[in-house]
Amino acid sequence: MTTTWTAAHRAAAISPHESLALFESRGFTDQTVRQSLRLAGGGDAVRVRLTNRYGATPLRIGGAHLALRTKGSGIDPGSDTPLHFSGAPTVTLPAGEDIVSDPVELPVTAGEELSVSLYLPGDTGPTTFTAIPYDTGHAVPGNQLSAQLLEDAEEFTTGHLLAGVDVLAPAGTRIAVAFGDSWIEGAATTPGTDNSFPGQLSRRLDHGWIVNTGISGNRLLTDAVGEHLLARIDHDVLAVPGVSHVIVHIGLNDLGLPGHFAHPEPAEGPTAAELKTGLTTLADRLHTAGLTVIGATIGPYRGTVHEGYDTPRGQAVRAEVNAWLLGDDHPFDGIVDVAAAVADPDEPDRIRAEYNAGDGLHVNDAGAKAIADAVDVTLLDL
After folding, report:
1. Domain end position, chosen among 113, 145, 166
2. What letter would DSSP give residue 236?
């Protein structure tokens, strides 16, 4: 059987040096860092992607291991395998670069949990990171790469240096990339469950799967948090092996973050015309690459607890953009009505109570499932 490398997990990267930050990054010194992930699809072998894209200095990796996860920081010792990079067990990753490990022959299936352990012998400085990783990470002093369990480990809730995993899948395997903001990444869904709406949607598919390149706080038109969506297209969509479809949810933070960051002073976000132009540019660039592009209405957020986020002007722009997306003039191949899937039927600008994660801006696991269930899977002809 002919096979090809296909993305089975992705984690979109954020710079730790942004002046406006919603999430605090960190570094590591002479520590073993173990992080877990869940594969969206399977194959006969795996390779791991690491990133120092936003690091200020070269990153010394004194060893890396891959294993099947058991629970928490635990691994199955029988599966523990050293990773190599061009045949070497250690590597120095230059600032601004990513690296892919040599292949590991390890048959894996969709839903399987892996753990990646990195020994970082020096002072890394603030690391390239991910806002909402699959699950809680663990760090311990020294080189404990092969430890079955990391005893008395420090826990952290952001992801670091781990950019994704590819699997050796049957040739012709096609996947979708979920691309956008916190509603894509799965903020406020339960850690360690893969219950973001793309994760739950992926489990509905008979063929192919979905990987997630959402960034909580991300915007379509403006940097912070993360590079803006139009700037992320090449790395976070086009460079993903196996991609044929893209699902996009973006716009909430374009409307809300200017006022939130400026609070209590007023601030203006983009106009509806500017968002429409940006979304059209996004769709056109993805179409030029031969991809099917599925857009989404902007989710409701009336009454969010985040001060300065909810403004009359932002609500008016959201209503105009959503009406355009539900009409006949948008540039997408299909639309998921995210807003309708989770709206309070009596106050459609708000998230309905049973789907509200508690802050009026994000959905919980049940809300993410409602969005996943609202998707016409025939749009994802993978």
Report:
1. 166
2. I
